[in-house]
């Protein structure tokens, strides 16, 4: 079951983060102030999807990788504290702050400074999660590839 949960939860988490990032960037670049308020208000509600998906992906990934001594698994493990720390220390507080500021109509220098930090931190997490997905796919291909008989 873990082999099924991990890729689904990981993909859901990645798609959720990408949707947050793209919605933010597009609303800021091309949308009205009302659209920015809506996007900034909805992102914290998206945590109801994101947090369980990240927990399921992380927990199942830990279970899948605990017996592996593969360098690819080691690299994936090293990325996870960065992803989690970035999310907990930067992205979630930023999203809550920006939601509050947007709902108050306070689009000041503080809002845009935190917005810039959030977009950079989000891009870092997307990049690291994409690398983990790529490496996970590489690992599953190696395991499912037919073995050649020795001659």
Description:
The relative contact order is 0.15. Helices cover 87% and strands 0% of the residues. It has 4 helices and no strands. The radius of gyration is 18 Å and the shape is elongated. By secondary structure, it is an all-alpha fold.
List keywords for this structure.
single chain, 151 residues, mainly alpha, 87% helix
Would you kindly provide a brief summary of this structure?
With 151 residues, the protein is mostly helical. Helix content is 87%, strand content 0%.
Q: Give unreliable regions as ranges.
A: none
What's the tally of helices?
Answer: 4
First-to-last CA distance: 36 Å
Biggest sheet layout: none
Topology:
Layout: H1 2-30, H2 33-65, H3 71-103, H4 109-144
């Amino acid at each position: 079951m873990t082999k099924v949960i991990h890729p689904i939860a990981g993909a859901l988490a990645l798609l959720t983060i990408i949707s947050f990032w793209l919605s933010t960037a597009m609303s800021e670049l091309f949308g009205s102030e009302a659209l920015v308020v809506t996007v900034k208000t909805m992102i914290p509600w998206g945590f109801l999807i994101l947090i369980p998906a990240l927990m399921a992906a992380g927990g199942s990934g830990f279970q899948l990788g605990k017996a592996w001594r593969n360098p690819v698994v080691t690299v994936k493990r090293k990325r996870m504290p960065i992803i989690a720390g970035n999310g907990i220390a930067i992205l979630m507080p930023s999203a809550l702050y920006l939601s509050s500021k947007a709902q108050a109509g306070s689009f000041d220098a503080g809002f845009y400074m935190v917005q810039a930090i959030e977009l950079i931190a989000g891009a870092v997490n997307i990049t690291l999660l994409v690398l983990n997905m790529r490496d996970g796919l590489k690992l599953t291909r190696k395991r499912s590839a037919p073995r050649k008989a020795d001659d």
